[in-house]
Amino acid sequence: MNDLFLRACRREATERTPVWFMRQAGRYQQEYRELRKRYGILDICRTPELAAQVTMLPVEQLGVDAAILFSDIVVPLAAMGIDVRIEEGRGPMVDSPLRSTGDVERLRALEPETDLPFVLDAIRNLVEDLDVPLIGFSGAPFTLASYLVEGGPSRSFARTKALMLGQADTWHALMERLSAAVLAFLRAQIKAGVSAIQVFDSWVGALGPQDYDEFVRPHVRPIFRGLESLGVPRIHFGVGTEGLLTRMRDVGADVVGVDWRVPLDAAWERLGPGVAVQGNLDPATLLAPWEVIERRARDVLDGAGGRSGHVFNLGHGVLPGTPPEALRRLVELVHEVSARERAVP
Ligand code: CP3
Ligand 1 centre from 142 Cα, in Å? Predict the structure, then answer.
């Protein structure tokens, strides 16, 4: 078993830097595109054999040090009674958005064992076969709420913020339901065998620190606290979160994921030595010639500066159109360069 990733999450010294990629399974892969001609994305998520097969693809092809369960953040929402679909090129769409207390009551409590057996089956199948750790995940309450309230993707999150600031009781009721569901779902994934979890609060960077403290933190903290005793590394990631990094640490993360808008060493300075850091090559770099990719990847490793507890990743998901060969070479480069650094005292 290759446990480099788990050791880095625990900030132990490793002989080289582990690497995996958000969206390491997806449209940039010929095999994935072929499969998607026959199945919808949610069909793949709901069929353990297909989900497991897609999860394995990048592990075999790229040599990454961790697998991430193939699923989507909307899968539990659908199981809670929300009519949600994923539109290609756009993202999750909810035709009847939630904007009142009555609407919030449409959100059923989640019982993962009965509502999402296929996810847990996929995990149980995968941990048998994988020789790298499997990461489970969930969307965080704010990011999930943003899709439920907006009805789809958003730039300004205006409706979400209007609800949050204008109908605080409704907001907190919504976030409480989501928080309970996320905690139950992540606990079930850990029980089924994942050895780390990532909480994607992808869009929380839209908020300032004051709103984070008042409207998000009370609902995220119980998730991280509720997982603490289970002993698996807890990764907390968001986009554009430079101003929220210490807060995302303080809710109880073991690893904070950062995007490329903040230099890795600056993020680490701010976070201090008590937490591992994941990131943060700009995914668009992979569309450039190899020389550029190599230079920028070395910059990320330099930013980590040989500290223990660096998990190399992109600052967000792999973009469609990324050449698989570039990712494969990047994994090799991160392994080689970091191993060489360790060898020099
Ligand atoms: O390999 C992996 O990372 C695991 C699979 C994974 C998917 N979605 C599969 C997927 C993960 C971890 C997610 C999480 C997810 N889904 C997030 C949080 C992470 C992030 O990217 O910030 C969010 C915000 C979503 C919502 C969502 N689902 C979006 C924005 C999209 C893209 C829409 C588009 O067409 O560009 C999806 C669809 C989706 N989920 C794809 C994949 C591989 C796209 C491919 C497809 O439609 O088949």
Answer: 16
